[in-house]
Specification:
By secondary structure, the chain is of the alpha+beta class. Helices cover 20% and strands 37% of the residues. It is built from 2 helices and 6 strands, in the order βαββββαβ. Strand 3 and strand 4 form a beta hairpin. Helix 1 packs antiparallel against helix 2.
């Protein structure tokens, strides 16, 4: 099993959710996060004073899938989140050793 974490632009969340739903992903966790990479942030003007916004709003989508589904999921996220502009985001894939569904006691792939 693998955990896929995708950090994307906020306005792309619905597109990513729909793309994952179309390929059969039944659950995910979404978190509002802030950060920056090459995009670096930007300056804004507030009441005549200029200030730097270092951390930009992003969404983090997390899902755990069977090994065989990783490529399909990452492709769906990439296609749905792509704008071609800086700050489109990143996808991280990490191994998951064990999953336990609390309600039923199901484990590993049966629990996802």
């Amino acid at each position: 099993m693998k955990k896929i974490e995708a950090v994307i632009k906020p306005f792309k969340l619905d597109d990513v959710r729909e793309a994952l739903s179309e390929i059969g992903v039944t659950g995910m966790t979404v978190t509002e996060v802030k950060g920056f990479g090459r995009q670096k942030g930007h300056t804004e003007l507030y009441r005549g004073a200029e200030y730097v916004v270092d951390f930009l709003p992003k969404m983090k989508v997390e899902l755990v899938v069977a090994d065989k589904d990783v490529e399909r999921c990452t492709e769906a996220i990439t296609k749905a989140a792509h704008t071609g502009k800086i700050g489109d985001g990143k996808i991280f894939v990490t191994p998951v050793d064990h999953v336990l569904r609390i309600r039923t006691g199901e484990e590993n792939e049966d629990a996802i």
